[in-house]
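Help wanted!
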Amino acid sequence: MAVKFDLNEREVWDGNYAASQALRQADVDVVVAYPITPSTPIVENYGAYVGNGYINGEFVMVESEHAAMSGCIGASAAGGRVSTATSSQGFALMAEVLYQASGMRLPIVLNVVNRALASPLNVRGDHADMYLGRDSGWIQFGAFNAQEAYDLALCAFKVGENHSVRLPVMVHQDGFITSHTAQNVYPLTDEKAYEFVGDFVPVDDMLDFSRPVTYGAQTEEDWHYEHKAKQHKALMDSRKVIDEVFAEFKEITGREYNRVESYDMEDADVVIVGLGSTVETARVAAKNMREKGVKAGVVAIRCFRPFPYDEVRDVLQNAKAIAVTDRSSPGGAMGAFFNEVTAAMYTSESRPMVTGFVYGLGGRDFSIEEAERIFAEQQAHADAGHITTEIQQFSGLRGPKLGFFKTARG
Amino acid sequence: MAQELNLLATDNRGQSQLEAGMNLAGWDEVTQGTVLTSFEGDATGIANKKAEERTYSDFNSYTASVASWRVQKPVFNRDICIDCQNCWVWCPDSSILSRDKQMLGIDYDHCKGCEVCVEVCPTNPKSLLMFNEHADLEESLAAWPEKKKKEKK
Amino acid sequence: MAITSIKNLKEFSTNNDRFEGAHTLCPGCAHSMIVRELMNCTDDNLVISSNTGCLEVSTAVYPFTSWDTSWIHIGFENAATSVTAAQVMHKVRKKKGNLKDNDAPVKFVAFGGDGSTYDIGFQWLSGAMERGHDFTYICLDNENYANTGGQRSSATPVGAHTSTAQAGTHSYGKKQKKKDIVSIMAAHGSPYVAQLAPNKWKSMAKGFQKALEVEGPCFINTVSPCCTEWKFDPKDTINLTDLATDSLMFPIYEIIDSHELNILYRPKNPISVEEYMAAQGRYKHLFKPQYRHIIEEVQKDVDAKWDLLQRREEARL
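Answered by r_m:
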């Protein structure tokens, strides 16, 4: 039996600590990890829980992030609950094996504390690592604060391990801003948390020798495509399970999660669409703008993969001008997030104006004032009836104004 | 002989060629996570079961054939064999059928005709020799060479 | 642990094959001889992982598997990691009592070719050895990347022609010496490390059984002559292995607890390196007058290494 961990109804935790408590409460069997800033404390804490008897699992510190995810795959295929954490360069080193985890349909939970990708080297938060994972076949949840990092980690196990899903899940939080900022967190009791997550029920268990299984077979042009299509469908179908798990979580906690979150959107003309901790900044700015008579709203993506096209279109179709914010250098294209939202809006009747902002790279602050300026700019587009700026702009960047692509379309 | 003893058990044995990709299933029918199961039913203690006692799944390559790889086949001559099991231990294709310390024959669904068994056979003349793939067993045995005199070194 | 009898070949042959035929390894490939022997020398449950390579691409070609036990392949480099993490999971689940059969003995084995062992998976292997997991890593050393058309690896010996260490008018093939993987693995403090060969089936089976039995990370380098890339007739795989062990290009030995070295085979009549090389197409160019001195150099190196091995055996360090 594990030693009882005393919890208060309200704790003051940072995002990393909150995530590690979720791993403890979910009774994760094995954590295979190679710590990296800023996600280091998540796995360190799990190790401390093991070291002090708070959990009956095993912590294995390996020699690289590639090995960390490789180990997670081996342990998960051996039929138990598995989790780890990483960031940035570590995430990049894991990239090869991320695809293997999802292809083998192993419900590993990866806590990603978002951080910029070098070069130049940077330890601060942006979404370059999260974007790198967007085609890897994982479910991707975004937490905007410490409470959500905790809540969504618990939900992640329940979603990924659901037998109709059987997919790995990433829970993203922003480096330092969320991971290292102590905030009020209301944890569940250990009993309630475990009851919610449930026992791990293995599928294709390598340690069940009454039914030996082969993992990782080779498929060439006659089989590969069908397997990838089946996997994609599972990811698409997980939307229903995610909604159900969020609903169940609301029942026991009162905290509501949606694949797309919307704030002040009932009558909004101008909207900022964001990911991560930026959302909270934009929400404050929207309130301020409303005091000035601008009908501002915020749309946040909780579930980056599978991407909620229908919900994005529904919530944004009455808007006039939309700013989509990409916290990752797009490398010769529009931001990936801009592309997703624009694709959703292209299928709407109204086809509102959409512009993209690259912002916050390498942890550059995104202020309330800047969010207000972006709202004001959207209002200018709406008033003019056409996009008055370049479609891709850079927010909070020093030097001459940088922007790309123009349109004459209304 | 091996065939008579039902050592090559399972209904569909040798029906599918590994490279042919027969009966291709659609995306809705392929296995989740590309996982393959080796046996049907409970396989507990499978290491202690002989092939003919096992219930191989259709995914087990035991049920498949690589006979088409072969140009020549090894033919086994029971009369000369001393059951040393050299061929058994060195066959790279699990194709030497041995039971109770006796060599019984060759699994022609899995033999690729590499001729290692012939090379490692210590009898004089050899108890295994290569013949044309379509050679008849009786004719092959009739054509078996005599004992060779030891060459002086 | 249940260990299968390997007293003699007749006894050994009563074991049931756990590695099935109709895999797609080349005719005469030594890989399958080695894998069969490992799987047949125990009746314990096995969890096996394989690095990318000939073995992996030939034994799990969807929709077929040749493995009668649990098997996993992830990538080129990480078989040591996946199988040891599975071993950790086994430990946890056994403790929690939620295994299907909580008492059945399970052994954890990783296979890799020399490319994945000496080169790309070296770090993953070293990490798993250092962490001290209870597992056995077996390298199927055919001295090149045979699966991808025969590129040089750090296991390729001096003078061999490979597609990326070409022999020609200005080159005699690979110029660098083969990495001494066995000593490197012994230096990790492993309880059992060995170099074994399939022609010496009994010492190989004994070594496999020891490695499976001993607790801790064990490493075995096995010689796996590759008819396709070494260029010899498939029927001669075992004959060629005889030449390899008798020329002392591949001495057969074990190292216990990283210091107790035992030579397991001493050829009564050692043959020359030249004789070994003459049997393979990959060394053909060395018999041209301008490169003959390479054969002599390799012979000198082999002699020196054999001498060192004998002195290490004597000195027990």
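OP: Thanks! One thing I noticed: DSSP finds twelve helices and 17 strands in chain A.
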